[in-house]
Amino acid sequence: MRANYLKTIFLTLALLLAGISHQALPVMAVNDTHGLDVTGMDRSVNPGDDFFAYANGEWIKTHQIPEDRSSYGVWDVLSQEANQRTSDLIKEASKAANGTEERKIGDYYAAYMNEQAIESKGLTPLKSELQEINSIADKTALSRIFGSQLRADVDPLNSTNFYTDRLFGIWVSPDFNKPDRNVAYMLQGGLGLPDRDNYLSKDANDVALQAKYRAHIATVLKLAGIADSDAAATRIYDLEHKIAEAHTSRTDSEDVHKANNPWRLQDFSKKAPGLDWGSFFKTAGLAAQPMIMVWHPGGVTGISALVGSQPLSVWKEYLTYHAIDRASGLLPKAFADERFNFYGRTLSGVPKQRERSQRAVSATSDALGDAVGKLYVKRYFPPEAKAKVQEMVKNLIIAFGRRIDNLDWMTPATKAKAKAKLDTLYVGVGYPEHWRDYSGLKVVPDDALGNAERVELFDYQWSLSKLGKPMDKTEWWMTPQTVNAVNLPIQNGLNFPAAILRPPFFDMNADPVENYGSIGATIGHEISHSFDDQGSQFDASGRLLNWWTTEDLAHFRASADRLAAEFDQYEPLPGIHVNGKLTLSENIADVAGLSVAYDGYRNAYGGKPAPDAQGFTGDQRFFLAYGQSWRGKQRPESLRLQLTGDGHAPDEYRADTVRNIDAWYQAFNIQPGRKLYLSPQARVRVW
After folding, report:
1. Are the CB atoms for 455 and 125 separated by under 8 Å?
2. C-beta atoms surrounding 253 within 10 Å
């Protein structure tokens, strides 16, 4: 998946739930000087020992993480710019005429900012939901509630996050086996902590986190005036612990072959007894579907069994707590502060919550993403920028094709299928070809929680509307104002939003060599995801199909195993290593993307190196631009979470992946004995 870069995915979701995100405060301006940041380097470090520190060391020493951040770096600088631009657009939209799409944007923001209305209403916006939970009389009614709460979840092919505090999640996407039609994928859920291991681990930090989470549950219940909250919190936590025990591991979740489980609706009661599936699917709006693809069969079976075996009273307490906690960011301040206190301060190490206006901008941009995006690209993404990026994309695809042609280990049959996949690759630049229609969404200027709930339901119903229909290869999964990039394996497509196509990643006024080193490596990264350990399992049509010969696949896997072992050696925190297997897809894409970007850069200069500038050769400039694209700092708590369950290695080790590129050794004269030195035979060359 993504270029970088769905940076710390399940962490990002946890932060958003806590009312914070990776969008930064105005600590560092966007680069206006066009070129490398030479002052941010630490030239006392030998690039062969620590390339990340060589490229970024002085910046690391002199910059602090803002108090309301879990991390800070160049990605946050761009997010800061995009957030400010989005904020201006949203505030202007409040002046639009009633009934227009722009006015819905303004009204959503206004409702979020209306703290007086939120305080005065208290828990009243949740009254009907809490009454419905309280009136549950049997397991059939319980199953109906679970079905009514089902919502569209994230794309599991593009993140390691399957985390949802609802019992299950749904993702609508093309069928693994028949990609010409969309089907529903069911994902395990039901946890308040980000991962099953947070419940099951005996590590001292996780044990402490478990106690703090129980205390958080009790505090939320006390704020809601629920009696005997401590005992209820213990019961709720114990139930979640049982759910965690039923969960499929994160590593197994990434194996798409284990996710290819088409169940007919009538099969659920036999394969996963306990839940009243007929009632569940009816209220979920899925009763007419001939089949559901079950991503986590063990998790679904285990969770369903708990619905049948655990006391109804405990399930009602569980539902009550999650209804309140889920909504607490839009409830009175005491609830919002407690949610930040746990998910922001305790879980992620963030000392201070962002200003409400910043949270409101993020929430509005998320809720009406395409509507805001339409305004964003009209003002901030000129056609000439799109044309230049498309030209770069074309060059990089050509470079990737040549690399396939020149592989000495791949058979002609596999090469032909790889080239066919490359030829059918869709690359979206800047913004989608078709915008979503929000005419059916009701937004009320003084109903913040109601607006959020209506958006959730609106998005869910929009997802369901795609079921049974042909795949739209051009569908986007990110908004234009998002600083990120993504590969969509089943669609065989890529998205590069407008907000990432800015300095220092893409600068229309910079020399091409630096654009290729930064955004070029990102584009190459995303292209290569179509051919990595996950993307290579899908053919040109998006079908889950092995198109490799046995010999080719064995060679690929051997290279992948070597790269996994390379990253296993990194130890960001004492006693905690990077999980080379978990981060393998992203690490493969980094090596391949950087290799392709280097070829593309050389092609752009007619096969020659770029001119010297700022005291560096053309090749040095290329690699330094890449190293500086990973500039950033992270709090230990956030880093620990990332190492536990994120599919991306910490930024410093991604910058150091240059050690696998021959040209880097030549550019900086890296000799044996340096810490990053790998013998030519040990360097990983996947593509």
Report:
1. no
2. 22
Nearest to 38 by CA among 614, 611, 507: 614
Cβ atoms of residues 543 and 177 within 8 Å: yes
Q: Torsion over CA of 281, 286, 292 and 294, rounded to 10 degrees? A: -50
pLDDT for 172-215, tens place per residue?
A: 999 999 998 999 999 999 999 999 999 999 999 999 999 999 99
Cβ neighbour number for residue 558 with a 10 Å cutoff: 11
Handedness of CA 613, 618, 619, 623 (dihedral sign): positive
154 is written with which tokens?
């994230």
**Residue 19 vs residue 523, higher pLDDT:** 523
Q: Do residues 219 and 299 both lie within one domain?
A: yes
Does residue 346 belong to any structural domain of this protein?
no
108-137 tens-digit pLDDT:
999 999 999 999 999 999 999 999 999 999
> Which residues are within 8 A (CB) of 508 and not within 5 positions of it... i.e. 6 or more apart?
384, 385, 388
> What's the CA gap between 246 and 308, in Å, rounded?
14
Q: Per-residue pLDDT tens for 615-649?
A: 999 999 999 999 999 999 999 999 998 998 788 99
Give this prediction's pTM.
0.84
Range of the domain at 144: 136-330
Q: How far is 480 from 91, CA to CA, in rounded Å?
A: 18
Decide which of 330, 345, 371 is a domain's last residue.
330
Tokens of 152: 């569209």
